[in-house]
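ligand=xanthosine-5'-monophosphate
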Amino acid sequence: MNDIAMNHDTILVLDFGSQYTQLIGRRIREQSVYSAVKPYTLSIDEIRAMNPRGIILSGGPDSTLGENAPTVSPELFDLNIPILGICYGAQLMAKFFGGKVVGSSHREYGRTQMTIMSSTQLFVDIPIEPTTSVWMSHGDSVSELPKDFIPIAKSDDCPFIAFADESEKLYALQFHPEVSHTMYGNMIIERFVVDICGSRKEWNMTQFLQDELKKTKEHVGSEGNVICGLSGGVDSSVAASVVHRAIGERLTCIFVDNGLLRRSEREQIESMVNAHLNLQLIVVDAAERFLLKLKGVIDPEAKRKIIGNEFIYVFEEEANKLSDAKFLVQGTLYPDVIESVATSGPASMIKSHHNVGGLPENMNLILVEPLRELYKDEVRKLGIEMELPLSMVMRQPFPGPGLAIRCIGEVTAARLEKLRDSDAIILEEIIKADLYDSLWQAFAVLLSTKSVGVMGDKRTYDETIALRAVTSTDGMTADWARLPFDVLETISRRITNEVSGIGRVVYDITSKPPGTIEWE
Ligand code: XMP
């Protein structure tokens, strides 16, 4: 069992496959309390071994009324540990203790007003009376409470939107406190995690760094060298920095220029590494190889696969030139590590992407993954803790397949140039307007649609740039950014004036869901 769970007050989140499960884990960490997300199938012995302070049963796409509905061992409720059920988890608790759950022909999705019916420790000192706005996403609901449970809150559609058996510290919420649209959701989570479960607020990056340096030293021992693929993004840079601080010169980083980078990106990364990280860095110019392989390819998944494979070939070639390479650093994050629960729900695979480019096992390298316990925002905090430059720590994410998946249709050198020029203008204007840090990402997408225009006295028939700018806390959900009109205007004017071959700029006003952040 994971030693962090043993050494910290831990809240265990049992996952029933909700798209929001990881958010629950993050919200708990935001309270400076360690959370571990595990599949609902975790055995009672394993749960006992973790010695959690409290347990949260997540939502999920199944119905408790269905045959073979996912459930927990009855012994879970004998552990004498506070339990909070959310959505599916709430229905599961209601059913388990003898209440009644009914199906519904339609899903309730979105904001609802919740009306408080009686006081509870879960809502203590939260200004939610008499009503407050909460986020719902459910089909079934609880129609009769089990004996000993009391109703805490209701909504127009749901007689029991929150209920509890306070003496047993059992709480159930039909709505999602982890979703930011629920007002005071984080306070509700704090009440459960800190007040009801009694967890100490002791999870912080200062302590984590010390522990991780020690662990990395022990793991790597005194023999063999360590290699790391550095992309310049936050994850690989922070991972490399931790390992470098732990073992120093035995680390060599490899940066592959795949020709799909943004304007001046390679130079920026090189100078950032030289100025701040003080690492041994090998830069490989592989642009031509990648472009050749991408010739004629338009399917997004095919692009990803080609780029992922080519990266492996290039990286392997370089790694083989290094003597005595025994370990490989990877910037794997906690969301990549959590075992996914097999359900048919929306949390199951949407695109075949994130953090692909995993290197093959036959390289026979031992993995070093200093970030595998962390969420993205914690990686940033760790970077700040290590005094890495803010320009690196706060860098907006950039996908591994780079501009290839922002070049809709074929990826050619000429199209990449147009995209790069447009992207550079967007970035310049976003920084000038002091908006960079408030956006999760802002970038250009080159579309495969041409449109007619007039320039001077001439008719033009040129390509289109879509401007994508989103706000988000983790990339799992996102909202389109309400950029000021004058910023939009400047970006559009500059791109159509300065980038030859672009005749039109459109602004993408799609949130995620239903859209994704990237277009491919
Ligand atoms: P989507 O498009 O799924 O993106 O809403 C969510 C976040 O992931 C990034 N992204 C990728 N990162 N390889 C990566 O390393 C990929 O193939 C990939 N596709 C999307 C995206 O930029 C956003 O931050």
